[in-house]
Amino acid sequence: MSVVQMKYKSTVTAFLVLVSFSLPLAAQAQMSARSDALLSDLAQADAAGAERLEREIRLEWSKSGSAAMDLLLKRGQDAMEVNDIPKAINHFTALTDHAPDFAEGWHGLALAYFQADRLGLTADALEHTLALNPRHFGALRGLGAVFEELDQPALAYDAYSRVLEIRPHDTDVEEALKRLETRVRGTEL
């Protein structure tokens, strides 16, 4: 093979790699703008509208920009539905290994670790999720549950409060805040 052919092959390969990485990034930027708009609407929505918006937000968050990564997410979620936690952990671990910038993969891994009662790993996966998507109300809710499990009521209260700033119609979180309020704020004399 001549030097010209080798340079041509290298150039074509570099171009293909650049295109394959830039297309998912462009799609992810579009999804981010859409989910930001949906999250803004969610903060203002009534209870009925909030449910629809939450479904749309979760749908946006579940799009990785790669069919293979979406399949790993689906397989992990399917394993969670049938309570096959080891298989779910394997799928979500593979997903986070191959797509470390996909927040929903980390969130799925956190849910699986929580089901396996591995709270340290749950917290680590939630940290990754929130680093990638600070407004991920599911991850904040999970963080509240982890802190509650670890008997850290002030931290749990803070995490749950942040959920309600983003997603104001969460009755489970409202109940958790009521349950924790006296432990965090004390009782009035």
Automatic annotation (TrEMBL):
Coiled coil: none annotated. SMART domains: TPR. TPR repeats lie at residues 137-170. The keyword Signal applies. The keyword Signal applies. Keywords: Signal, TPR repeat. Pfam families: TPR_16. The lineage of its organism: Bacteria, Pseudomonadati, Pseudomonadota, Alphaproteobacteria, Rhodobacterales. This is Uncharacterized protein. It comes from the Bacteria. Residues 1-29 form the signal peptide. InterPro entries: TPR-like_helical_dom_sf, TPR_rpt. It comes from Puniceibacterium antarcticum.
